[in-house]
Amino acid sequence: MAVVVRTVAQLAGLSLSLLGWVLSCLTNYLPQWKNLNLDLNEMENWTMGLWQTCVIQEEVGMQCKDFDSFLALPAELRGSRILMFLSNGLGLLGLLVSGFGLDCLRIGERQPACKKRLLILGGLLFWTAGITTVVPVSWVAHLIVREFWDETIPEIVPRWEFGEALFLGWFAGFSLLLGGCLLHCAACSTQAPPALGHYAVAEMQYPHQHLEMKNAHLEI
To answer: How far apart are CA 104 and CA 1, in angstroms?
Structure first.
């Protein structure tokens, strides 16, 4: 039973981490980090991401323009780019490392201590990837809230609001954190050595064979 729970925890942790990594990569490139609705022209909406800004018009559709310079960006966008790249790289490395540490993988099954260390390392990588996803998303969200309620800005000036990519990034970060926790718990749980099963079967078979030999002698 313990082996089944351990295997399920490993697969669930790796699946959650994989989902979080994919969503983190999408969050990095989606342009919907900020949304802006113009009161003067309700048919025109603006969105901004880490790499480009887009305008959505009902007649024309979506038109996007990439940022020209990295150094000209605000500090939160520059820092978010770096952290999101770090998150995507650490998540990919965590998938590779923890994949080789799974019990269901036959590679290295005679070295359980090494597989345990791989799972722990993979969990730590997923934790770091989750933190480096949540931090930039929360950073941008904090600045949006602060600017939205800034009384020094005239009310006529449009305000940026939360974009869909922020909620996707939070979900991705917490998925990575939860997946890393499950892998760490599975690695720290006790695993019954496979030899015990063979010894138990042998002990059950030996009395059975002894009784068969005794009955054969009585018949003779």
So the answer is: 15
Q: Which amino acid is at 188?
A: C
Residue 53, SS3 per DSSP: strand
Q: What confidence score (pLDDT) does residue 7 get?
A: 83
Tokens matching residue 157: 């000036």
Phi, psi of 52 (to 5 degrees): -160, 165
Type of residue numbered 29: Y
Structure confidence by residue, pLDDT tens digits, 126-179:
999 999 999 999 999 999 999 999 888 887 888 899 999 999 999 999 999 999
Determine how many CB atoms are found less than 10 A away from the CB of residue 157.
8
**Rounded average pLDDT over 21-49:** 88
What is the 3-state secondary structure of 14-34? HHHHHHHHHHHHHHHHCCCCE
Give the three-class secondary structure for 37.
strand
Beta bridge partners of 52: 66
Measure the CA–CA gap between 32 and 47, rounded to whole angstroms. Answer: 5
Which residues fall within 8 angstroms of residue 132, CB to CB, at 6 or more apart?
83, 84, 86, 87, 90
Amino acid at 174: F
Collapsing DSSP to helix, strand or coil, 127 comes out as helix
- For 102, which DSSP code? -
CA dist list (Å): 83 to 36, 45, 53, 159 = 24, 27, 20, 25
CA dihedral 45, 49, 54, 58 (to 10 degrees): -40
- Token pair for 177: 């954190």
